[in-house]
């Protein structure tokens, strides 16, 4: 592998380590002296339990300071209800036809190759966010939405149509179950 000139690396890691520029440099780049082009899309998903020293997006970006010939985008999100941290790093321009698990922290950009997009967050998405998604993905054909919060759909009359709650795990928190139960019992379906 030391003679490799181009490497495309795409993976999702579920462990206790965020893959960042330091890890890529130490474990890949330093071992491939002839590498000229490195394209990557890496998502790290790690447990998060209210740590005090949380990494910021700037911390992650700093680990790519030695990547002189490529633009690297990073996005880090903490999901307290799911007790998880998601870190997404990728080389830009983005070459995949899909972009999964975009959150409210999406940094934007232009993604001409992407046809399938999925959104994920514990917080609701706002109208401006969807405008940004439409601008960033001009050739998008499919959009999936996973919002792990309790929400109520309203008709123009202001009456509730439906209540839906998606939980991160099978049991959910006691508070979420109580809110779902209370909301469900007060929901109307009047036309």
Q: Short description, anyone?
A:
This protein has 191 residues and is of the alpha/beta class. 19% of the residues lie in helices and 35% in strands.
Would you write up a description of this structure?
The protein is 19% helix and 35% strand. The protein is of the alpha/beta class and 191 residues long. The chain has a four-stranded mixed sheet. Strands 5-6-7 form a three-stranded parallel sheet, with no helix packed on it. A two-stranded antiparallel sheet has the order 8-9. The C terminus is likely disordered.
Unreliable residue runs: 160-191
Which of globular, elongated, flat, extended, rod-shaped describes the shape? globular
Task: Tell me the series of helices and strands, N- to C-terminal.
Answer: EHEHEEEEHEEEH
Task: State the separation between the terminal residues, measured CA to CA.
Answer: 65 Å
Helix residue percentage: 10-25%
Q: Overall pLDDT, averaged?
A: 80
Spatial strand sequence of the major β-sheet: 1-2-4-3
């Amino acid at each position: 592998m030391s003679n490799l000139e181009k490497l495309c690396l795409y993976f999702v890691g579920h462990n206790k380590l965020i893959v960042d520029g330091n890890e890529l440099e130490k474990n890949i780049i330093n071992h491939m002296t002839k590498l000229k082009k490195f394209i990557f899309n890496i998502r790290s998903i790690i447990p998060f339990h209210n740590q005090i020293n949380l990494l910021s997006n700037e911390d992650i970006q700093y680990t790519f300071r030695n990547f002189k010939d490529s633009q690297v985008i990073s996005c880090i999100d903490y999901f307290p209800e799911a007790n998880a941290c998601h870190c997404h790093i990728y080389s830009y321009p983005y070459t995949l036809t899909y972009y999964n698990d975009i959150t409210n922290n999406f940094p934007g950009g232009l993604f001409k190759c992407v046809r399938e997009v999925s959104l994920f967050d514990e917080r609701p998405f706002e109208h401006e966010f969807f405008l940004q998604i439409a601008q960033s993905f001009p050739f998008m054909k499919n959009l999936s939405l996973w919002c792990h919060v309790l929400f109520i759909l309203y008709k123009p009359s202001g009456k509730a149509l439906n209540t839906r709650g998606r939980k991160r795990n099978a049991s959910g928190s006691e508070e979420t179950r109580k809110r779902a139960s209370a909301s469900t019992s007060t929901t109307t379906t009047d036309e």
